[in-house]
Fold this sequence. Notes:
Blueprint: E1 2-8, E2 11-17, H1 25-33, E3 43-48, E4 55-61, E5 66-67, H2 71-83, E6 94-98, E7 101-110, E8 113-120, E9 148-152, E10 155-163, E11 167-172, H3 182-190, E12 200-208, E13 211-218, E14 222-224, H4 228-240, E15 247-252, E16 255-260, E17 268-272, E18 274-280
Parallel strand pairs: 2-3, 4-6, 11-12, 13-15
Antiparallel strand pairs: 1-2, 1-18, 3-4, 4-5, 6-7, 7-8, 8-17, 9-10, 10-11, 12-13, 13-14, 15-16, 16-17
Amino acid sequence: MKFTKLHGAGNDYVYVDARSSEKNWSNIAIEMSDRHKGIGSDGLILAMESDKADLRMRMFNADGSEGEMCGNGIRCLVRFALDQKILDAGITMFRVETLAGILEVTPIWHGQEMVAARVGMGEPILSPKDIPIDVSNLGQNLGHVLDNPMTVDGYEFNVSYVSMGNPHAIAFVEDPVDDVVLTNIGPLMENHSMFPNRINFEIVNVIGKDRLKVRVWERGSGITMACGTGACAVAVAAKLKGLIGNRSTIELPGGNLTVEWEGKGSVILEGPVEKVFEGTWSI
């Protein structure tokens, strides 16, 4: 089985043309993602046919669980599909079907190479029941939840909740994000009883009115170098809290992403795309 590995700001995935094959993708994702015995990645992303868009995306985390969406992954998927001639390079914008809905991806070119993309990520979901989070201890009829106190592994956080098609818990902290022991806190937050579908967790330092520094624990994959939906969720929470303006740079360990959101409507994510290598996987 042929594959290509690509990354967006260090968030790396293995890509496969799965239009004409059906396999146990969950198990394959686990095997391929293993950084010691496999290719090594944050997960597996499949290019599939769609009857309602130009392309359908399925994504599996490193633990084999299927995710709704991946903001870095969808950019790289379009690059993969263009390289494989699945998509026509003469088209300026592509519609990609995901479990979080149909999203629009606009490639950014340097000569003949797609090096980045802008993605219309859709409107953020703020209603607790739709994220989902258990609000039984928070009161009823909440439009959104910002700065909910949570204590995890002895750390006290004020946590805000946003879904970008997949659920995120965001904590703005005063201590440097690099000092937070995310390896301990991340899995406890991901599997907290408040989150029936588990959750992605971001810790954030506010650097300025247009810049945030972020580390990410991704549901099903652990600490990752970047998270596109996480960057969007962080920017939405920061905007709602009045910490940033309409456009912000999100600094992540793997690189920077740009997020635009005016406080309503679709969130726009822009970030890089880079091909790492191609190969063949024996199954």
